[in-house]
Design a protein that fits this description.
The complex is a heterotrimer, with one copy of chain A (235 residues) and two copies of chain B (171 residues). With 235 residues, chain A is mostly helical. Chain A contains nine helices and three strands; from the N terminus they run αααααααβααββ. Chain A has a three-stranded antiparallel beta sheet. In chain A, α2 packs across α5, α3 packs antiparallel against α4 and α7 packs across α9. The longest helix of chain A is centred in the middle third of the chain and has 27 residues. Chain B is built from nine helices and five strands, in the order αααββααβααββαα. With 171 residues, chain B is α+β, with helices and mostly antiparallel strands. In chain B, α2 crosses α3 and α5 packs across α7. In chain B, strands 3-5-4 form a three-stranded antiparallel beta sheet. A two-stranded antiparallel ribbon of chain B has the order 1-2. The chains are: A mainly alpha (235), B alpha+beta (171). At the A-B interface, α6 and α7 of A face α1, α5, α6 and α8 of B.
Chain lengths: 235, 171, 171
C-alpha cells in the first residue's frame, strides 16, 4: 500500500501525469502523438502494483479516454472530410483540458512563491479581549410597533416560507425519558408523541421511541387491540 | 556600541514571541553576549518612552515582554467592543414579536417571521433585550422567551402594560 | 498636525489587534477622520523604516497589519515558533483554481484537475482559505466556493485584484 502511494504521489492525478509525459517527450501540446502517449500512460499505470480504487479509477478513466481518442484517430475518414478541421480532431477536447490545467499548475507555482515571500513577515496573534456588547441606544416604542405591524402583515400572506427543521433522535430520546420521569414512569403513547410538530419531528420522535425499546429503557404494552398503548420506564 | 545593529532584531523577537523571553534566549539566538542584550533592551525601552510610541518593554519574572503602554488601555479596550449601537431590522422585528406575544417559543416566532432566527435570538440575548422565561410543556420542552428589564429601560417603558394594546395594531 | 498625538494609539491598536485592521475601524475607535488615520499610518511606516526598528506595517486584506521586517526572518525562525503554512501541491492547485474561478463548484474544480478533491477541500476549509459563498442555481443546488479574508492575509494580498494575472500564462 505504502509502496503504491509513494509512486503515485509523484502525480497529482491523470492530468498531472499527462502533462509530465508531454513535457518529458517534448511534445507539442497542440499535436499530441496519441499512440505514444497512450502507450506510456498505460505503461505507467502498470507499474502501480497495488491499486487504490479511489485514485486509480480516475487514472483508468483517463486511460479509457486516451484509448478512445486513439481508436477514433485510426478510423478511416469519409472522403468529404479531406482536411482535418479543429473540431474534427478527437484530441481537441483533451488539449483544451490540458491547457486549462497547465494554466493553473503554473499559477499555483506562482502563488506558492507569494506564500513564501509572505512568510518572511512575522505577525503576532491577536490579544484576547473581553467582548463588550453595549445595550442598544436610541430605541423608540414607535419603531417596535412599526416593526411588529410590518412582520404581522407579511405573515398573513398566502405564501409561507418553508424552513428546514432538524430534530435529532437523541434529543427526542431525552425528551421521552424526561416525560416519563415527570409522569412517574408511565405515559400513554398518544399522550406523548406524534401529536404535534412537523413530519420530521414526528419521525424523529418515533425513531427515538424505537431506539429506547431496543436499548431496553422502556417497555411498550397494550392490554387489547386498539386500546391505549402505554410506555413504561424500565428502571 | 558594536552591537547596536541588533536593536531591531530584539524588537522583532519580542514582537513575535508574544510571551516573555529571557535574555539568555535572545543571546543564544543572536549569538552575542548577554550583557549587551541587556544594554540594548534598555536602549529600546528608552526609545519607546518617546511620546509618539505606543509600545514598551516590561520586565516580568520570565524575562522581557513587549506590550502596550498602560495609558492606552482605555482606547485598546474599544477594540473588543461592538461599535454598533443600533438594532437590525431583523432584530427589531423579532424583538417586537417577543414583546407582544411573550411568552413565545423560537419555532412560533419563526412561523410568524418565516425565517430561521437563531442568530437574531443570540444577538438579542447578548444585548440583554430578551431572556428565557421558562419552558413550554410540550414535546421537546422548548424554551419560552420574554423581554428583560433592560428592554423596558431602553424603550422608556415602566412595564409591559405600557406597550400599545395589540388589538389596535392589527387590522 | 493636530492628530499627531494619536500615533502611539495606532501603533498600540495594530499591536493588540494582531490581525489586519481597517482604517475605518481605527477611525471609529479614535473618533478622528479616516484621512488622518491614513496619514498617521504613513508616518508610522516612515518611522519604522529607520534601521534600528524591527517592525513595519503592511497593507493586506483591506487593512493594515503590524509585522516584522522581512530581512529579520532568518533570525526569527530560530525562535522555533514558525507555523507550518505549507500547502500540498494538490491543495495549492485547487486553491489557485478557486481563487481565479470563484464562485465555483466542486465538480467544476474536479473537471479541471481530473481528480476528486473532497479531502483537499476539507483541508482548505480547515485552514480557512476557502468558504462556501452560496449555492449554484442548478440541479442539486451545488455549493459554490470562494476564497476568504484569511486567504488574502496568508498570501499578502490586498484583494483578489492583486493576484498575478492569469492571462499572461496563456500559451
Amino acid at each position: 500500500m505504502s509502496d503504491y502511494k509513494i509512486k503515485l504521489e509523484i502525480f497529482e492525478g491523470p492530468m498531472d501525469l499527462l502533462m509530465h509525459l508531454i513535457e518529458k517527450n517534448q511534445i507539442d501540446i497542440y499535436d499530441i502523438p496519441i499512440a505514444i502517449v497512450t502507450e506510456q500512460y498505460i505503461a505507467y499505470l502498470k507499474t502501480l502494483e497495488i491499486f487504490n480504487i479511489d485514485v486509480a479509477s480516475e487514472f483508468l478513466l483517463m486511460a479509457a479516454t486516451l484509448l478512445q481518442i486513439k481508436s477514433r484517430m485510426l478510423l478511416p475518414r469519409q472522403p468529404q472530410f479531406v482536411e482535418l478541421t479543429e473540431e474534427d480532431d478527437p484530441r481537441q477536447e483533451l488539449v483544451d483540458r490540458l491547457i486549462e490545467y497547465r494554466k493553473f499548475k503554473e499559477m499555483s507555482a506562482q502563488m506558492e512563491n507569494l506564500l513564501k515571500e509572505r512568510e518572511h513577515f512575522f505577525t503576532r496573534l491577536p490579544e484576547d479581549f473581553p467582548v463588550k456588547i453595549p445595550v442598544p441606544m436610541g430605541l423608540n416604542i414607535n419603531d417596535l410597533v412599526t416593526a411588529f405591524a410590518a412582520v404581522w402583515e407579511s405573515s398573513i400572506d398566502d405564501y409561507e416560507l418553508v424552513s428546514r427543521e432538524e430534530f435529532s433522535v437523541q434529543d427526542k430520546m431525552y425528551d421521552i425519558i424526561h416525560l416519563l420521569y415527570k409522569y412517574h414512569g408511565r405515559i400513554e403513547f398518544n399522550q406523548t408523541l406524534i401529536r404535534k410538530g412537523t413530519k420530521s419531528e414526528v419521525v424523529a420522535s418515533f425513531l427515538a421511541l424505537l431506539e429506547l425499546v431496543k436499548l431496553q429503557r422502556v417497555i411498550i404494552s397494550q392490554q387489547e387491540r386498539f386500546s391505549t398503548i402505554y410506555i413504561t420506564l424500565k428502571e | 556600541m558594536f552591537y547596536l545593529k541588533y536593536k531591531k532584531h530584539i524588537e522583532a523577537l519580542l514582537f513575535v514571541s508574544g510571551d516573555p523571553i529571557t535574555i539568555h534566549k535572545i543571546a543564544q539566538i543572536l549569538e552575542i553576549p548577554e550583557e549587551h542584550i541587556k544594554l540594548l533592551i534598555e536602549q529600546l525601552i528608552e526609545d519607546m518612552a518617546k511620546d509618539d510610541r505606543g509600545l514598551t518593554i516590561i520586565k516580568v519574572a520570565a524575562g522581557y515582554q513587549l506590550c502596550t503602554k498602560p495609558e492606552l488601555s482605555e482606547t485598546l479596550e474599544k477594540l473588543g467592543q461592538v461599535q454598533d449601537t443600533k438594532l437590525s431590522t431583523a432584530a427589531m422585528e423579532t424583538l417586537s414579536i417577543i414583546a407582544f406575544k411573550q411568552p413565545i417559543t423560537k419555532i412560533e416566532i419563526e412561523n410568524i417571521r418565516g425565517v430561521k432566527i437563531d442568530r437574531v435570538l443570540a444577538t438579542l440575548n447578548e444585548r440583554q433585550m430578551i431572556k428565557e422565561i421558562g419552558r413550554k410543556e410540550a414535546i421537546g420542552r422548548p424554551i419560552l422567551y420574554g423581554t428583560t428589564e433592560n428592554f423596558l429601560k431602553c424603550f422608556g417603558l415602566n412595564g409591559l402594560q405600557d406597550l400599545p394594546p395589540l388589538a389596535e395594531l392589527l387590522p
